[in-house]
Write a structure and sequence with these properties.
CATH topology of the largest domain: Rossmann fold
Shape: elongated
Radius of gyration: 21 Å
Number of helices: 12
Distance between the termini: 22 Å
Number of domains: 2
Strand order of the largest sheet: 3-2-1-4-5-10-9-6-7-8
Oligomer: single chain
Strand content: 15-25%
Length: 309
Amino acid sequence: MRILLAVDGSKFSEAATQTVIVQAKPKGTEVRVLHVIDILTNQLPEMMAYYPGIEHARDARRKLAETLVAKTAELLRAKNLNVTTVVELGSPKSKIIDTAAEWHADLIVLGSHGRTGLDRFLLGSLPDSVLRHAYCSVELVRIPRPAKGSKTIDGATKGKLRRILLAIDDSKFSEAASRLLIEQVRPDETEVRVLHVMEALPFLVARGTGGYDAALDKVKDARTKQGEDLVAKIAETLRAKGLKVSTAVAKGDPKLKILDTAEQWKAELIVLGSLGQTGLERFLMGSVSDAVVRHARCSVEIARSGPAS
């Protein structure tokens, strides 16, 4: 597995690094640590003609960047991970996406600035661009808040990933999410809850008329059975890999149910599938995936099966 870790020296970036340490399995995992120096690249030649000192400033920033990726790599190598580093100059959005594509990364990991107004702004910028346009899976790491009445923080930033919520449907993209989870999780440390949310039937069907109630009940029962079979199938696959698994089938709005379940169960990571690089995915990123990414208190991983054909 290939993980691209984008770092910037912030505490959120440190949380992303810790997440990779917790999730990445030493055997067969390669990590590339990337820092992008965000300078007005296209304007540098013109600016240097008027401000020669800008070249020195750029060189100083590069030295700081190289120190940052080297220290991050040292932390990862201490966990027996295979690590390379790279420093790029340009737009962080483009460079992260391009580097992941050129290196054939399976997962991009980057930090989020939490659930603040600033985070909402940033989700319209760097994280949002990476989530929408990367060909591979993306994990947005949040620093968890202490539980109510507690001053301590559990979870990935403290060295363990205890609870992962895997939200699935019956698509190949959910299968990709399951495979990605299996590649990362250490069985002795983590519990996975497999959740399927059944959306309400369309109003004209759900209301029923006259003798249609019996047929409607059959439809509801069939959908419930289908959901139960689906989570059972995924759970069986995960248990075969030694994971501790529980299942849940809920009814309602998928966005709200995923967020509510994660909150009540105290999930530290939500994993769900994406439809890849299509126009439909852009719609979905404005719906279920987007809502979960923006409003979850914990980290979120959007799994992709690869580039669209």
